[in-house]
Write a structure and sequence with these properties.
Helix content: 25-40%
Largest sheet: 10 strands, parallel
CATH architecture of the largest domain: Alpha-Beta Horseshoe
Number of helices: 17
Structural class: alpha/beta
Number of domains: 4
Distance between the termini: 59 Å
CATH superfamily of the largest domain: Ribonuclease Inhibitor
Strand order of the largest sheet: 10-11-13-15-17-18-19-20-21-23
Radius of gyration: 26 Å
CATH topology of the largest domain: Leucine-rich repeat, LRR (right-handed beta-alpha superhelix)
Number of strands: 24
Shape: globular
Length: 561
């Protein structure tokens, strides 16, 4: 770490790009995180953009806008237009920006194109497996090369861990101690050497061997010794192959569709509601195949994510429609629009589409196994009776204000996420989604025409309700008091310039029927002056936040004498 800190030259006023490079699994992201945590307090603004290679530029730029500029954008803005805005607002700010797992010139040019974008003393840290796109010798016919014609870039190559440190890391995961027991010292050293000293391999393999027999240790070592050190994913595949079928399915679901998703969006009472059991998730965490990061998001190392997606691609190399999961929007769209869907498909990502695109009942009739569906724009058209009957998770950005489908009933829907949509209280999709005892999570964000929530009386098993940045929201339907299983309620507004905001009630007078509510967040709601006195009936409430409610006057709870 100290070598990188030295390259950063924190005492100087120049703008520096520091590139941490090395093979996958060697610890580049871990090092960048440690540096970020150590020095971020020295900067005016900071942002850590994870897994750039696996995300689209617009999503990354929106996060950058939120992190560094404090802006919330409810509508799609062209990547270049947003770039101009970021340049204009950043040029006088001292910022630290981490660009993790970058591999293309285009990504750099749209996120941090030139040092002139940033204020004096700013630092941009890039992690990458390959510095080819940053090579100083420029072939101008290759768009993946960027010339370094100034002194802004500094490079640090990650080295393989020293034996002592590698053995300590392996022991922490295999024995939960800093060193192996005497009887395991030799074989532990063999595992360290066989793993090539790569932190990711040491962590995953060590976690897999925890509490296993010596016979399992020896058998696993034999398998590893047949795999070259450069083929990291094949080493990681050993842990995947030891999972049972349901655990493998959860691993593939997360690798293909849920990296970066908030865990709290899907977990209630310790159970992962989008899957049939929480045990499988805990096994994956124990084996270091997935993690939950600091801001409550599901996280998987890039090598493991690549492994999961490669496993799915190998289900049928030539015909994507025969695979179980389609996460590439272009591929998914081609399968749907050409009526190539099959019973094998359980997850689809249909994003970056024209808002006017229509999905017909005929297209979806070929997808009886579909569990997860992510949409961006478009509409359902036709008779959807008895279609999408296995759908568990629906995420729809730019959802239409009126569905053109008839007969739609999502009876197994567990998670409903709608964002940046013009839906209102009388939206004709509420019935299709909410007449359902299985519905556990409703997450609405930036639905700016929504003044009043729908009636909740048909989804009485709801456990988590989030309404975020719905700027015109004035009232929560009184039926919320019937949600006796609700555990988490978040009503999050957005930061506004100081202005006179008319008072609103938002919450109904009676809320004491929410007997299971343990977390209540009413934040950045300037119209809120008070909370109803019935709040005293929330006997299991453990956490309440009124952060950012600038005009809040009093909590109307009678004082005990």
């Amino acid at each position: 770490m100290e070598a990188v800190i030295k390259l950063l030259g924190l005492g100087t006023l120049d703008v520096r790009f520091v590139v941490i490079h090395g093979i996958g699994g060697i610890g580049k992201t871990t090092l960048a995180k440690a540096i970020f945590e150590r020095i971020s307090s020295q900067f005016q603004s900071c942002s850590f953009l994870l897994d750039i290679r696996g995300n689209d530029i617009l999503t990354l730029r929106k996060k950058l806008s939120r992190d560094i500029l404090g802006l919330q954008h409810s509508k799609v803005i062209d990547a270049y237009e947003r770039r101009d805005m970021i340049e204009e607002r950043l040029h006088d700010k001292k910022v630290i920006l981490i660009l993790d797992d970058m591999d293309k010139k285009d990504q750099l040019m749209k996120l941090a194109g030139e040092s002139s974008w940033f204020g004096p003393g700013s630092r941009i840290i890039i992690t990458t497996r390959n510095t080819h796109f940053l090579a100083p010798q420029t072939d101008y016919q290759d768009d993946n090369i960027i010339p370094l014609n100034h002194q802004d870039f500094y490079f640090y190559e990650m080295k393989i861990m020293e034996l002592g440190h590698a053995l300590q890391l392996f022991s922490k995961h295999s024995f939960k101690s800093d060193s192996p027991p005497r009887d395991y010292v030799n074989i532990s050293c063999e595992f360290v050497n066989t793993s090539g000293g790569l932190p990711l391999a040491l962590e995953v393999i060590g976690s897999f061997l925890h509490l296993r027999s010596m016979r399992t240790w020896k058998d696993t070592l034999k398998k590893l010794q047949t795999i070259p050190n450069t083929e990291v994913k094949k080493k990681l595949l050993i842990s995947y192959e030891e999972l049972d079928f349901s655990q493998q399915q959860i691993f593939l679901d997360i690798a293909c569709h849920f990296i970066g998703e908030k865990e709290s969006t899907h977990i209630t009472c310790g159970k992962l509601v989008i899957f049939s059991t929480s045990f499988g998730l805990n096994v994956l965490i124990h084996l270091s195949l997935i993690k939950v990061n600091e801001d409550d998001r599901l996280w998987m190392h890039n090598q493991l994510g690549d492994l999961g997606r490669e496993i799915v691609e190998q289900e049928c190399v030539r015909n994507p429609e025969e695979r179980s999961r389609l996460w590439c929007p272009k591929t998914a769209s081609n399968v749907i629009q050409n009526n190539l869907g099959t019973k094998n498909i359980v997850a689809l990502k249909l994003t970056r589409l024209d808002d006017e695109h229509n999905f017909t009942s005929g297209e979806f009739s070929r997808l009886p196994s579909l569990r997860f569906l992510e949409l961006d724009g478009g509409n359902f058209v036709g008779d959807f009776k008895n279609l999408l009957f296995n759908l568990t998770w629906l995420c729809w950005r730019h959802c239409p204000s009126e569905l053109h489908a008839t007969g739609l009933r999502l009876k197994k829907l567990t998670v409903l996420k709608l964002s940046e949509s013009d839906i209102m209280e009388d939206w004709n999709g509420w019935g299709a989604c909410m007449v359902n005892d299985n519905l556990k999570v409703i997450y609405l964000e930036s639905c700016n025409y929504l003044k009043r929530t729908p009636n909740f009386s048909k989804c009485l098993n709801l456990k988590r309700l989030v309404l975020k940045n719905c700027t015109r929201l004035e009232e929560i339907d009184s039926s919320i008091n019937q949600l006796g299983h609700l555990k988490y309620l978040e009503l999050d507004g957005m930061d506004r310039p100081l202005q006179r905001i008319p008072p609103i009630s938002l919450l109904p007078y009676a809320i004491d029927g929410m007997k299971s509510l343990s977390v209540l967040k009413v934040e950045k709601q300037d119209g809120i002056r008070e909370l109803p006195p019935s709040i005293e009936g929330l006997q299991v409430l453990k956490h309440m936040s009124l952060s950012g409610c600038c005009n809040f006057v009093e909590l109307l709870i009678p004082l005990e004498s």
